[in-house]
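Kindly draft a polypeptide, keeping tokens residue-aligned:

***
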Amino acid sequence: MAMISLGGATEASIWSIYYPIETVNSNWNSIPYGKPLLNQTFHVFNQLMEPCPVWVPGQLYIGGIGLAQGYWRDEEKTESSFIIHPHTQERLYKTGDLGRYLPDGNLEFLGREDFQVKIHGYRIELGEIEAALQQHRMIKDVVVNVVENQHLAAYIVPLQSNEEDYTPDDTTAVAPITSNMGNVPKQKNSINKPPCQALADAKEKAKIL
């Protein structure tokens, strides 16, 4: 039985790239992203929209017949995400993902360039959830992270004056401000005034897909 890894984006008909998994090298950080499917294209570009050499990280773009026409009734988002390459004139979707070419021609996926994550196939903006939780009157700061790629966890710094009155479950009422119930953290942890670097480290770890 053959095992195939598939990847891509909803904006490009979901599946755009594949990799047949035969043997797994113990030195790999992850299974290679692979090569484009038929009639699809994948590109790794730098900030000047130039192809990146092997091993050099860049932004991932998808092209080909699988591209969507755009976002329903959202011209601004469509114009920012779907572009025309300035030199090749190919229409492309900017995924927001980072990757690089491997010497064998396969692509390696390196994560996001923002704080967007994917859980059970749904993309979620961690920053939106943090902003919603920070509206709570008892919260000083918050970091939302992904636990075991399965669910969201919120790490909450209470306001000092309200620490005795605050419990993590108090945020349940404000969490549904986010776009759907799948964005509500299942796990909430109260932490005592961590240094700024601790919050930054947590945000960096949040770039899990």
Summary: The longest strand covers residues 91-101. DSSP finds three helices and 13 strands in the chain.
